[in-house]
Amino acid sequence: MRALFSYLVARLTQRERKTRRLGLVAGVLIWALLPVGAHAATCTSNPSATFSMGFPATIVVPRDLPVGSDIPGAVVQQQVPADGSVGIACTFTGSETVPAVFTNYQVGSSSGIVTPIGNTGVGYKLHSDSTGSDYVTGTKNLGAAQFAAGPTTCSVAPCHLVMGPVMTMTLVKVQQTLSNPTLSSGKYMDVTIGGYLSSTVSIANPIQIISQTCSVTTPSIDVDLGSVPLRKFTTIGSGSDPVNFNIGVDCTGLTTNLGITFTDAVNPSNQTNTLPLSSTSIAAGIGIQILRNGTAVAYGPDSNIAGTTNQIMIGQVNGTATTIPLAARYVQTASTIRGGSANGKATFTMSYQ
């Protein structure tokens, strides 16, 4: 029994020695994997920069302004000090970086350079006029180069970084149909650098968004082209003397780019510049053209969407009533023509962009 006990003790002692040796080797490996002389960036915080953007209390959005377009009159610029009295400064000893985290407080992440304002159908853009940067949600890692002195940063490094310091905030239409939302005042975006608050962008006042349209003052127009002798038509493309008429539009209180599309009421797919006569007409070999500045306009689909096929852009209207001068004429469409009644019908669709 004594001999067996001695044997067991000897075996246990050998195992302990092996375990200790393994533990010693593991300890050496762990020590060897630790970086020698590791350093991190050091950041210091001054008061944060505050942009308080004061927009008009009411902003009118043209009904057919294309999605993604800047809203007219919805641009504000503001500047904060660039003397180092605000912002975050960081120093580096190597290639380490610090995170700059941009957060939207109005729900949603940026798409491109536009950040949504919840489900209002309106978004905003933040642009630094000093550096050319556009600010969007997410994280950007900053290194020593971003804090270096330079013409767009500061004269003495390390620079105290802020958004801007000259900042432009622009409201953008991000949804086709707007339900006249009210944009709340308060914080819209901020950025922290290395965990410290660097800059905050707020809207100073509530904004009532109004989706407004113009009104057509001449919704139905009859153009009498008169009696035209057959001898007036000498070849295909020849026509009668134009008869002038106007379309009236009242855009009081709204600045918009005005467009118009004419549509063949019988054949909406017609994209030529000639309106066929109605089926009740007796005349033959004749069509009708609508002229703008002496040139026949082409017909297109019944749509107010910007860029509709054959849409005619009239130009900008600045809060006033306006008239669109046009003319109409008969035009010969076949080598053989026949006299008689000659009628046609077209519709027009206004686009307010």
From TrEMBL:
Question: Which organism's genome codes for this protein?
Answer: Paraburkholderia diazotrophica
List the lineage, top down: Bacteria, Pseudomonadati, Pseudomonadota, Betaproteobacteria, Burkholderiales
Pfam families membership: Fimbrial
BP terms from Gene Ontology: cell adhesion involved in single-species biofilm formation
Instruction: Tell me which UniProt keywords the record has, alphabetically.
Output: Signal
Q: Which residues form the Fimbrial-type adhesion domain?
A: 209-353
**What is this protein's record name?**
Pilin (Type 1 fimbria component protein)
* GO CC term (a single one): pilus
Question: What SUPFAM superfamilies does the annotation carry?
Answer: Bacterial adhesins
